[in-house]
Amino acid sequence: MAPLDPQPQTIVLRAARLLDGNGAEPLADAALVLHGETITAVGPAHTVPIPLGARVIDYGDKSIMPGLVSNHAHVGLVDGVDVGARFYTRANILRQLRQYEAYGVTTVTSLGLNGPLFRALREEMHAGATPGADLFGVESGVGTPCGAPPASMVPVGDDQLFRPDTPEEARTAVRAMAARGTDLVKVWLDDFRGTVPVKMPPAVYRAAIDEAHALGLRVAAHIHDREDARAITRAGADILAHGVRDVPVDAELVQWLAEHRVWYIPTLSLDETTFVFAERPEWTLEPFVERALAPAVRARIDDPQWRERTLGEPRSAFARSSLAMNLRNVKTLFDAGIPIGFGSDSGVTPLRLSGASEHRELGLLVDAGLTPLQAITTATKNAAALLGLTDRGVLAVGKKADLVVLDGDPSRTIANTKAIVAVWHRGRLASGRVETFESLSE
Ligand SMILES: [Zn+2]
Prior knowledge:
It comes from Pendulispora albinea. This is Amidohydrolase family protein. InterPro entries: Amidohydro-rel, Metal-dep_hydrolase_composite, Metal_Hydrolase, Metallo-dep_Hydrolase. This protein is an alpha/beta fold and about 450 residues long. The chain folds into two domains: about 10-65 and about 390-440, Urease, subunit C, domain 1 (Roll); about 70-385, Metal-dependent hydrolases (TIM Barrel, Alpha-Beta Barrel). The chain has 13 helices and 19 strands. Helix 4 (about 200-215) links the parallel strand 11 (about 185-190) and strand 12. Helix 12 crosses helix 13 (about 370-385). The longest helix has 22 residues, at about 315-335. The chain is globular, with a radius of gyration of 21 Å. The two termini are about 25 Å apart. About 50% of the residues are buried. The mean pLDDT is about 95. Zinc ion binds near residues 72, 74, 111, 345 and 348.
């Protein structure tokens, strides 16, 4: 990739179609003017004046859409097939953020399990001087002693998670997170199909939520079951960080979520990764996915014994039924107007592939019954809104120039989001190629 001039300059991108993130049909023969980090004009090419001296890049028959925004991912937990506190390093996190960016995910929310390094890294990514996706998140989080998140699944350090015993300890934990500048608070309410002995007691999560709200922070809740979703949102949780996956949502829960404008992040691909790489359907063999596999991960999924054992495990059957219910519930909630956020919970286990999983999540949203345009709007405009970000998520004047150039039309076929030609982040070419039809306007 050719590095661009470091001075802010004016760049005009042209393409056969532009999806602006608002959900409208693509704009044909579009032009987008970028100055520095910002979009300064967008519209049909014949109506957009080309500024003098601008660098004009004509992407021909390609499509342009906004960079994806993840509301639920993790950084610094995994390296290859290993998970552990020792991976919460600057080098590993920056590697993952560059991978997200190369896959067109230009903003990532690391939703908990972050160590002390998080704050400085987040500020660094906000400043835009370091290559990689912009970073938001939950500084550590509020779990349960001997409970969720299971230490066996995410063996993080003591400085990456609070596990309060009492309501007062929960309030102390939330105050500590607030003091370190967390964007959101997270609590876990789950017994992981009975594999951990306790769930967080109501008095503890109520105290955590009350304290967060008193400090002006919103609370995201990890749940799996409907009754936990009901209990935690009645206690005031603002965001469900996963879909309801045990039984169908009922009218009472739908009404509560609607009235209280609770965000719902289904993370459909989470459960699928438990078994799908053992099944090895066609899409898992695509170069788009293969590129995201570390050698040790590839060796694992190429091992027939691992595949057979994985498919026979009870957790795979559980994940299958969870995914089926999750697909059903997200459609019900979408149709009811519940605000849907976007994320795949990538980065928390070796097969939740940073960047690639987000595109699988788009495909699953369409499998659930959303149109491709609705899925894309969820992952751009809506995901930015969940974070309270007004500077991105759509391609409009004044917004950040975070965008992806694609072969084909993703509004017709969602799989086309994987046909990435180039990623522009903050007005700069972050990865991919510039087409040859390039000229300076005179
Ligand atoms: Zn997560």
